[in-house]
Write a structure and sequence with these properties.
The structure holds 3 protein chains of 3 kinds.
Chain A: H1 7-21, H2 30-54, E1 59-63, E2 76-80, H3 82-105, H4 110-129, H5 133-151, H6 158-189, H7 194-202, H8 208-225, H9 232-240, H10 243-273, H11 277-299, H12 305-325, H13 329-360, H14 377-391, H15 399-411, H16 417-441, H17 459-472, H18 482-497, H19 502-515, H20 518-527, H21 543-564, H22 567-571, H23 576-591, H24 597-618
Antiparallel strand pairs in A: 1-2
Chain B: H1 17-39, H2 51-64, H3 69-77, H4 79-100, E1 106-109, H5 125-147, H6 156-172, H7 176-182, H8 185-209, H9 231-259, E2 261-264
Antiparallel strand pairs in B: 1-2
Chain C: H1 4-21, H2 26-48, H3 70-101
The chains are: A mainly alpha, B mainly alpha, C mainly alpha.
Chain lengths: 620, 270, 114
């Protein structure tokens, strides 16, 4: 069974190539072929997941049949454990959903769109399942290049052009950092296989080269994941990429950067860095916390719906990074649950927004005031359900992930971080709820009068937002295709359901225990030997978690309502003395998102330098 | 200057150019220090003992009957990487075609000369003769390098790029427009995609044969022979097709932009 | 002396990055980006070098001759192709910018903002 694993990558590639071959001929059945291929992918990866779950150890297959000799890897391994296979499954599901959505969203996207999306899907599968460091990099670059191409889909508009440009420049610099890290590790260990490098490093200590390698790898992955201050490209790119592509970008692509950091640490660096976990945690919690808050605060200010979701994505990446940055089994489990739930919810929200764009031709929240009423009621319900799920009400959506994260934070003595991500969750959910309230329910002030006491977009910006939205899709404006509603509904339902099953939490904890066991991974990859699984605790739902869940939802709804209410009521909440400085800092932060590639790369360098210095200090 | 969507204006950025430079210089200095510290732990230059490379140098010839170990690494031991890399170029070319494709509001025509009435001569006879004469040998050389990838320096990537330069010879000889009228582009696209598909299919053939994906299951012959090293040669050819097609597409898209200027209907520049 | 290749790699990386940050011309920016990428080629090849080692091609030398590391060469080959692909894509964007907006200054491109 595992020998077929490369087909998860090669299958979509082949279909994409066939698309390109038949390109000069006339096209008819593009959508059907893509949807069938994507569905086959989901089934295939799902079958692999079931297979993996039935065994106790990661499944390993060597591409090209190159078995390792005496612990030295000759070829490239694909090693998959439940967590990485689940992530691959999430990616496959989202590709399928994106195709279903695009079917009715685009008039004639052309075979290039389909081919690029299929290659993108195959690359993500390869990335999740890879056991080789350079192979990871190749699939990382493949994902990136297809993403650049997809973002530039309508490059005749200035928005997509600039978005694709900053996307490409930022991520390429990130990729160069990754290569530096790979080169350093190869120099020290003479290996490219994750397990083999881990074994080699475990016998050494954390000197400059090892710390540098870890720093560079993390910097590159953090650029992809859009951790602050490497995140500037994401807000621009996700706002202008075609919405079906955004479904995948936001739903899973950013999370893959976080996955990579975890994977790289737990297979290779746990040996030398184990003594420094306490200080390492501080560094990652800093970056994760800042990201979570930055994204949350800025998303409140967005009126462009896709850009709003882009900042929600950034904030939730921060939360996932917090989970990973706790460097414990529970932390990894929390991050996994958050990635799954939040990813599905964000994807569903993007589909819902896409349906609104399709129907009304506008993507600006203020312009859409009340226009969402044209869209069928179920869609509005789905939108609100998704928004609430982001906050994590008890037993829905992000609840499981949050409660495991709370537990994990307290366990390692960093309970203070709970405040950060609860606040972030509240703010992000509030922003989405506010948007939903304005668009679907017609609450709040109409058109130009923005109740947020912070500033307003000019009329011309609203105009241009809508020009871009209209150019993206053409369709019968009288009906919303049921397949869009169904896709949005299925995604949101899936995201909410993650927290319905307590057994899922236990399974995830087991999977996380496996993920963090470096010795077991190395044993099975290099020698085919099984090591016993460590025990994992059972985390029951406690009252504190329910309290936080209710608090999050209550807070989100409360803030949304407050914001939608007339301006003077909100102004009264903010003390007079603070208003000036708050407004100043807020606008300064917002204007940092200047859209200029030079600025973004500068901040990237600043962030890289800071991270490197902190890491060096943390591991001395 | 073509009229755009409105005059392009300089955006006010939060940080001025001077601040940007200063910020970068500081962080650049810190990065330099970090990198130097990291690279100080490297093994001495010229004295590398990486086990992966040493092992492959020793076993590649007897195992795979390929005398070019680098090709063996690329197409056999680490063939999966090459698959990904091939598709990176595939995706990039698709993206490029997407960006530069002719829009509905564009039309083709010869470029205007800003200096009206200037005599522009085509390429001289000597240049035309030499470039046209070189097209054939270039393609032949490319074929040789692709086919002998497993034996001597070369392989699909190198040969493919050489083949693509044949197009540049045509352009230098001034015959590009003539070539374009024949419109071989669909053939080129099919070549590229066939190469990409071919690579995957050869890999899958391994699965059908009962061994692993991308396994080298063909008979390997003797090292140094033209037909040796098993599937490596086939993969090299597939990659050669793909790279040739890809680079010809890239070159022709860019050449189209300059030679056959596309501009909005009813608007003339200059 | 033995640190020199690595020092040059660092230098090229930073110079290229400086060019990207301070660029006023898209084509210049793209070329600087490819300079940044080329620093990794130098790093990789510098790692694998063995003094007096032959190239890892054994067609006319006995198979056990001291040869340089073949893996880094293969990695660099992959890297070069990736770099070329990204450069091509970015240059297409540059052409589009000139065609549509009449400007090649990256700072003048109008971003989508709220």
């Amino acid at each position: 069974m595992e020998k077929l694993a490369p087909l998860a990558v090669a299958g979509p590639f082949l279909i994409a190539a066939l698309f390109a071959i038949s390109m000069p001929l006339s096209r008819r059945r593009d959508d059907i072929v893509s949807i069938v291929t994507a569905s086959a992918g989901v089934v295939f990866v799902g079958a692999m997941l079931i297979d993996v779950l039935s065994r106790d150890v990661p499944v390993v297959t060597w591409v090209g049949g190159w078995q390792p000799r005496a612990g030295v890897a000759l070829g490239i391994s694909m090693a998959f454990d439940p967590l990485s296979t689940s992530l691959a499954l999430l990616a496959a599901v989202l590709v399928c959903a994106a195709f279903l959505f695009a079917w009715r969203y685009f008039e004639t996207p052309g075979p290039i769109f389909h081919a690029l999306m299929l290659v993108f899907g195959g690359a993500m599968a390869g990335f999740c399942l890879s056991g080789d460091l350079f192979n990871l990099f190749v699939f990382f670059e493949l994902m990136s290049v297809t993403a650049y191409a997809l973002t530039a889909y309508r490059s005749e508009e200035s928005g997509p052009l600039q978005g694709a440009l900053t996307f490409a420049v930022s991520n390429t610099v990130g990729a160069v950092f990754i290569l530096f890290g790979i080169a350093l590790l190869y120099a020290r260990t003479g290996a490219l296989n994750l397990a083999q490098i881990g074994v080699a490093l475990a016998h050494g200590h954390a000197d400059g080269l090892v710390v540098g390698a870890f720093a560079f790898l993390c910097i590159g992955f953090m650029v992809k994941a859009a951790v602050v201050p490497f995140h500037f490209w994401l807000a621009d790119a996700y706002a202008v990429a075609p919405t079906p592509a955004c479904v995948i970008f936001s739903g899973v692509m950013s999370d893959l950067g976080i996955y990579a950091i975890a994977r790289v640490y737990w297979t290779m660096f746990d040996g030398p860095f184990h003594a420094h976990l306490e200080t390492l945690r501080l560094v990652f919690l800093l970056f994760g916390g800042v990201t979570a808050l930055w994204g949350a605060v800025l998303c409140l200010a967005q009126h462009h719906l896709k850009r709003l979701l882009a900042f929600v994505t950034i904030s939730q990446i921060g939360m996932a990074l917090i989970g990973v940055g706790l460097f414990s089994t529970e932390g990894i489990a929390a991050a996994a649950l958050l990635i799954a739930a939040d990813g599905l919810l964000r994807a569903g929200l993007f589909v819902a927004i896409g349906a609104v764009i399709h129907r009304t031709g506008s993507v600006n929240e203020l312009r859409l005031y009340r226009l969402g009423r044209q869209v069928p009621r179920p869609l509005a319900a789905i939108f609100f359900a998704g928004a609430l799920g982001l906050a994590g009400p008890p037993f829905l959506g992000a609840f499981s992930g949050k409660r495991v994260l709370e537990h994990a934070a307290i366990d390692v003595g960093h309970g203070w971080i709970i405040v950060v991500f609860v606040v972030a969750a509240i703010l992000t959910a509030a922003a989405v709820l506010r948007a939903g309230g304005r668009v679907f329910l017609g609450w709040g002030e109409p058109a130009e009068d923005d109740p947020i006491p912070f500033g307003r977009p000019t009329g011309s910006e609203v105009e241009r937002d809508d020009d871009e939205a209209e150019a993206e899709t053409t369709g019968a404006p009288d009906t919303t295709p049921p397949v869009m509603i169904a896709t949005a509904g299925a995604l949101v339902a899936g995201g909410l359901a993650i927290s319905l099953f307590p057994a899922l939490v236990d399974k995830t904890l087991d999977a996380a225990a496996r993920f963090t066991d470096r010795a077991a991974y190395a044993a099975v990859v290099l020698h085919g030997a099984k090591l016993p699984l460590p025990d994992t605790p059972n985390l029951g739902v406690d009252a504190l978690a329910i309290l936080f869940g209710l608090l999050s939802v209550g807070g989100a709804v409360g803030i949304a309502l407050a914001v939608l209410s007339p301006r003077h009521r909100v102004r009264g909440l903010v003390p007079l003395r603070l208003r000036g400085p708050l407004r100043g800092t807020y606008w300064a932060v917002r204007r940092l998102h200047s859209g200029q590639a030079g600025d973004y790369v500068t901040w990237l360098s600043v962030g890289a330098a800071t991270f490197g210095v902190l890491l060096a200090a943390a591991t001395r | 200057m073509s009229p755009g969507e409105g005059p392009a204006r300089r955006r006010d950025s939060e940080i001025s150019l001077a601040t940007r430079r200063r910020l970068f210089l500081v962080s650049g200095a810190v990065l330099a220090a970090l990198m130097t510290w990291a690279l100080a732990g490297m093994p001495a230059f010229g004295d590398y003992h990486g086990i992966y490379g040493l092992l492959l140098n020793r076993v590649a010839v007897p195992q795979e009957h390929a005398t070019n170990v680098i090709t063996a690494v690329n197409f056999d031991y680490r063939g999966f990487d090459t698959l990904g890399e091939e598709f990176i170029l595939f995706a990039a070319v698709l993206g490029l075609a997407l960006i530069l494709r002719e829009r509905r509001d564009e039309e083709e025509g010869p470029p205007d000369d800003d200096a009206v009435g200037r005599q522009v001569s085509g390429a001289s006879v000597a240049v035309r003769l030499i470039t046209v004469a070189l097209v054939g040998p270039t393609v032949l050389l490319a074929g040789y390098i692709i086919a002998h990838g497993a034996i001597t320096p070369g392989g699909g990537f190198q040969g493919g790029v050489i083949a693509a330069t044949a197009l540049l010879f045509v352009y230098l000889g001034g015959e590009y427009l003539a070539l374009r009228r024949i419109r071989p582009l669909p053939l080129v696209e099919i070549t590229k995609a066939t190469g990409a598909a071919g690579f995957v299919l050869i890999g899958i053939a391994g699965l059908i044969w009962g061994v692993a994906f991308l396994d080298n299951w063909l008979p390997k012959g003797t090292p140094g022979d033209v037909f040796s090293a098993g599937t490596m040669q086939l993969l090299s050819v597939a990659v050669g097709f793909e790279i040739t097609g890809g680079f010809v597409l890239i070159l022709s898209e860019f050449l189209d932009q300059t030679i056959v200027l596309r501009r909005r209907r009813g608007v003339r520049s200059g | 002396m033995s640190f020199l290749p690595f020092a040059i790699a660092i230098w090229i990386f930073l110079v290229g990055l400086y060019g990207v940050v301070t660029s006023h011309h898209l084509v210049h920016l793209v070329i600087c980006l490819s300079v940044v990428q080329s620093s990794t080629y130098l790093l990789l090849l510098g790692i694998g070098y063995r003094t007096n080692g032959a190239a890892s091609i054994f067609v006319d030398i006995p198979p056990n001759t001291k040869a340089v590391d073949p893996v880094v060469k293969a990695l660099t080959l992959t890297d070069v192709v990736v770099g070329a692909a990204v450069t091509a894509l970015l240059l297409a964007l540059a052409v589009q910018a000139q065609k549509r907006f009449g400007t090649l200054d990256p700072d003048e491109l109008d971003p989508l903002r709220d």
